[in-house]
Design a protein that fits this description.
By secondary structure, this protein is α/β, with parallel strands linked by helices. Helices cover 34% and strands 12% of the residues. The chain has two domains: 268 residues, Rossmann fold, CATH 3.40.50; 90 residues, formyl-coa transferase, domain 3. Helix 1 packs across helix 8. The longest helix has 24 residues.
């Protein structure tokens, strides 16, 4: 992808930081943190080449990730796997709260969530609550392509980092802003996380059993991941536009919007017919049988007969081919009208067999079926192993850490995981020295004044 030339600044004179530092009491200098040795990239599954880092699709694109947790930052993770250079900018003392979120590890600055989701980053510490830190940050923005943040609307402006200020520092800047409710509208200042977005966006209302409490659709923060994926798409579109015009732009995403966009036809159904879809448990309002069924050995399988032909195959597998006749349940509309009876027949058949037996019989007849996998099942599954979706990296002091692999799979330039979530500030010296051109003494002053 062709890049617009980033702004450059005149070389600094010795002793001129380009940042006005307010004198403060002498503080013992913090030891410099050298760049950390990182593990080797995860090997690709057989048949896929290992692309050189400089030849990956996003190589040459620099992203500044100022966000916290997942909504927004995950967009940086996705693009980093395909060559983008991502700097995580954190407060020098507090760091990203994600470092303390999830299962603790022997690394005092990293949970398992941080190790997995802050992959491929370098950490840079800057205090944006100090005006000197803001000046320093703008110097970094001038040498970057993309900025990601996910604070409540107005926070960046309060720090002196309005769009006008940012774009003045870098007219080609692409600015991803992810928030609970978006940058406009009456709710824009409300705080929001994925759980709230699932509820507000309409997903939680659909999750659970009829007449019972709406439930969380899994424990994963789907809204954070979905909004970030839309953010990554937005970044790619904005980069394409910048390639044509030289201009940057803002990408505005409300987490709830990303959730709502995945609710298929419910808006059209309500708009035309006033129909409110209710909770269906594990079932579907458009197909029967379509749900989760318990086997004799107390395990679970999923069956999805979305067409009449698929149900015909299931009926043959159950040795009850007459069920697929036109006089009984051969048409979807008839199955929907007799949902409870059709499900009862399938429940009884599945419950009479072990899971392995059900799977073998259904797969032989090409019935859409799959195991309801726990994470233990996933680790033992041959298909997961064959596809390389369980990536294994060595982390100093922890040993082998398994994380989800790279998605999507590109045949010529497959993505790579170079390192797990970095130690705090592991690239601060590198960025200040090599990218921004400060001397060792100048960096020492910045540390003494707790700007970095």
């Amino acid at each position: 992808m062709k890049k617009v030339e980033r702004q450059t600044e005149p070389a600094q004179q010795p002793g001129d930081l380009g940042v006005a530092i307010t004198p403060s009491p002498e503080i013992p200098p913090t030891p410099e943190i050298p760049p950390t040795d990182q593990p080797e990239p995860t090997p690709e599954p057989a048949g896929y080449p290992q692309a050189e880092a400089g030849k990956l699709p996003m190589s040459g694109i620099r992203i500044i990730d100022l966000g916290t947790f997942l909504a927004g930052p995950y967009a940086g993770s996705v693009l980093s796997e395909f060559g983008a250079e991502v700097f995580k900018v954190e407060h020098p003392i507090a760091g990203d709260p994600m470092r303390r979120f999830g299962t603790a590890t022997k690394r005092h600055d990293a949970t398992l969530a941080w190790l997995s989701e802050a992959r491929n980053r370098k950490s840079v510490t800057i205090d944006l609550r100090q005006k000197e830190g803001v000046q320093l940050f703008l110097k970094l923005i001038a040498k970057s392509d993309v900025l990601i943040e996910n604070f409540r609307p107005g926070t960046m402006e309060e720090w002196g980092l309005s769009w006008e200020t940012l774009s003045a520092a870098n007219p080609g800047l692409i600015y991803l802003r992810v928030s609970g409710y978006g940058q406009t509208g009456p709710y824009r200042r409300r705080s929001g996380f994925a759980h709230i977005a699932h509820a507000f966006g309409g997903l939680s209302y659909l999750a659970g059993f009829p007449g019972e409490t709406p439930v969380v659709p899994g424990t994963a923060p789907l809204g954070d991941y979905l909004s970030s994926l839309y953010g990554a798409i937005g970044i790619l579109l904005a980069l394409r536009h910048r390639e044509k015009t030289g201009r940057g732009q803002i990408i505005d995403i409300g987490i709830y919007e990303a959730v709502f966009r995945h609710l298929d036809e419910i808006a059209a159904s309500y708009g035309l017919f006033g129909k409110v879809r209710e909770r269906e448990g594990a079932g579907s309002f458009v197909a029967v049988p379509h749900g989760h069924f318990r086997t004799q050995d107390d395990k679970w399988i999923a069956i999805a007969c979305t067409t009449d032909k698929m149900f015909e195959r299931l009926a043959e597998t159950m040795e009850q081919p007459e069920l697929a006749s036109s006089t009984l349940y051969g048409e979807q509309r008839k199955r929907l009208a007799a949902r409870d009876e059709v499900n009862r027949i399938v429940i009884e058949w599945v419950g009479s067999l072990d899971r392995a037996d059900v799977l073998t019989r259904c797969l032989d007849k090409e019935v859409p079926i799959g195991k309801v996998n726990s994470i233990a099942d996933i680790f033992e599954d041959e298909h997961f192993r064959a596809r390389g979706i369980l990536a294994k990296l060595e982390e100093p002091g922890l040993g082998e850490v398994v994380v989800p692999g790279v998605v999507p799979r590109l045949s010529l330039t497959p993505g790579q995981i170079h390192n797990l979530g970095p130690p705090m500030g592991n690239a601060t010296y590198e960025v200040m020295r090599e990218l921004l051109g400060f001397s060792a003494d100048e960096i020492k002053q910045l540390r003494q004044h707790k700007i970095i």
